[in-house]
Specification:
Blueprint (H helix, E strand, L loop, with lengths): L9 H10 L60 H4 L1 E3 L10 H18 L15 H8 L6 H8 E6 L3 E9 L1 E5 L8 E4 L6 E4 L11 E7 L2 E3 L4 H5 L9 E5 L2 H10 L1 E5 L5 E9 L7 H7 L11 H9 L6 H4 L6 E5 L18 E3 L10 E6 L6 E7 L9 E8 L1 H8 L2 E11 L2 H5 L12
Parallel strand pairs: 3-16, 4-10, 13-15
Antiparallel strand pairs: 1-2, 2-17, 3-17, 4-9, 5-9, 6-7, 7-8, 10-11, 11-12, 13-16, 14-15, 14-17
Enzyme class: lyase
Organism: Sphingomonas arantia
Pfam family, one: 3D
């Protein structure tokens, strides 16, 4: 993931190649490159999206940059603590700007109610550790946001700190609330016979693991895959939330996990991730590349993948069916899109991360070889293919520019998590808890 909520070609191939896939509760982040989700469900037009014109390439201090950008290697450890944690440089040395600090502070403040209560799967923090920073954030104005981060949080490195980031966005596609001529691709809601199973209820070593399936007699079996669902396998057991115009665009709506439907009357309907069929996500970009479906010089970006699908005699159906994962939606209202924490996510500020390595709600700083990805972010989402330490999926909002930026995002560099003061010392045998703030 926004998402499956929280989708190039680095990022598009990566995302569509498995960089992300839907995950419950998130915008459904599947890297375009997003498991990418949502806001108002009325038919009134939305305001024009904030411009995503790329800013100047960030100049990062040599002291904090790695000497080279090696290929990203997923860690073998299963948690942040098992990967090893060490103190990073002073926050001021990272080179964050006041503007991005203000945006990150707003996102952090939004995440705090959950952060102070959440059981942190990474083992890095406890809910109480965040209380001093969250209490201060609640009353902190927009001014001097950099000072907030310097006083209450410290940069730490998980494992090698070597990071890899892709991008996702909220797509806009043609859709209708009712089936009519030209709108005949169903966008399904949650099926009545889809069962969620929390394996942690059966064995302690399976805590946090969930599966989905379908009860057949007295047995829980696999739920129908994409090809079967497209052939009518779920019948009337799933409501149709809306109808899409283009099957390829609906497929990518599923990859991202949420999106905006532009209705025939000019209105807007927002849909977000409800659940998924439990089948493994397969990125079709890699699938196509492995089969030599791209001509020499043909773009393997998300846009290139779509163009290639349209060249297929069946409209790309067989290729899309190679991804057995299928996402179900719900209509969304209120402020959004919503990430895995249940709070609105912010373009250019939210990232999807693996909660086993990054506390959801924690800020982080990226120093990447792709300048747009460098800077302060806040982990507010998850993604099915966003796994491991320092693996992130950056969220860019909605609109054509967001699609372009997310679709080309494939960045390598260094990551620092920003955790409560004293965390590194405590994890390495020092003080028993985080201090309130630096003077």
């Amino acid at each position: 993931m926004i998402r499956q909520l929280r989708v190039g070609a680095a990022a598009a191939v990566l995302a569509l190649a498995g960089c992300a896939a839907p995950q419950s509760g998130s915008v459904q982040s599947v890297p375009v490159a997003p498991e990418a989700a949502p806001v108002r469900s009325s038919s009134a037009p939305l305001a024009t999206p904030t411009s995503l014109t790329p800013g100047p390439k960030r100049i990062v201090p040599r002291a904090v940059m790695p000497p080279a950008m090696p290929p990203y290697l997923a860690p073998e450890a299963d948690s942040a603590v098992a990967s090893g944690v060490r103190a990073g440089p002073a926050f001021a040395a990272l080179g964050a700007t006041e503007a991005e600090a203000q945006a990150a502070l707003a996102a952090f403040r939004t995440s705090c109610p959950s952060l102070v209560k959440r059981t942190d799967r990474s083992g890095l923090t406890r809910g109480a550790d965040w209380v001093p920073a969250c209490t201060a954030a609640a009353g902190w104005g927009r001014a001097n946001a950099l000072d907030f981060f310097a006083r209450y949080l410290e940069p730490v490195v998980v494992g090698s700190g070597q990071a890899f980031a892709t991008g996702y966005y909220e797509p806009e596609i043609a859709g209708s609330r009712v089936r009519q001529s030209g709108y005949d691709v169903p966008i399904y809601g949650r099926p009545s016979d889809l069962v969620d199973v929390d394996l942690g209820q059966f064995a302690a070593d399976l805590k946090g693991r969930k599966i989905r399936g379908q009860v057949k007699g007295t047995t829980l079996g696999l739920y129908p895959d994409r090809a079967a669902i497209e052939s009518g396998a779920i019948g009337d057991r799933a409501p149709v939330v809306a109808w899409g115009k283009d099957p390829i665009e609906v497929f990518f709506l599923q990859v991202q996990g949420s999106g905006l439907l532009r209705l025939p009357d000019g209105g807007i309907m927002r849909v977000g991730y409800a659940t998924q069929n439990g089948r493994e996500y397969t990125g079709i970009g890699k699938y196509m590349k492995d089969r030599g479906l791209f001509a020499p010089g043909q773009s393997t970006s998300m846009q290139g993948i779509i163009a290639r699908l349209r060249q297929e005699p069946d409209g790309g159906a067989a290729i899309m069916n190679a991804n057995k994962s299928y996402v179900f939606f719900r209509e969304l209202g209120g402020a959004g899109p919503l990430g895995a924490m249940g709070y609105p996510v912010m373009g250019r500020t939210t990232v999807a991360a693996d909660p086993a390595f990054t506390p959801l709600g924690a800020p982080l700083f990226l120093s990447m070889d792709h300048g747009e990805a460098s800077g302060l972010w806040v982990a507010q989402d998850t993604g099915g293919a966003i796994k491991g330490a320092n693996r992130f999926d950056t969220y860019w909002g909605s609109g054509a520019e967001a699609r372009t930026v997310a679709g080309g995002m494939s960045a390598r560099g260094q990551a620092w998590l920003l955790l409560p003061i004293g965390t590194a010392a405590r994890l390495n045998g020092g003080a028993g808890g985080a201090t309130a703030a630096r003077p």
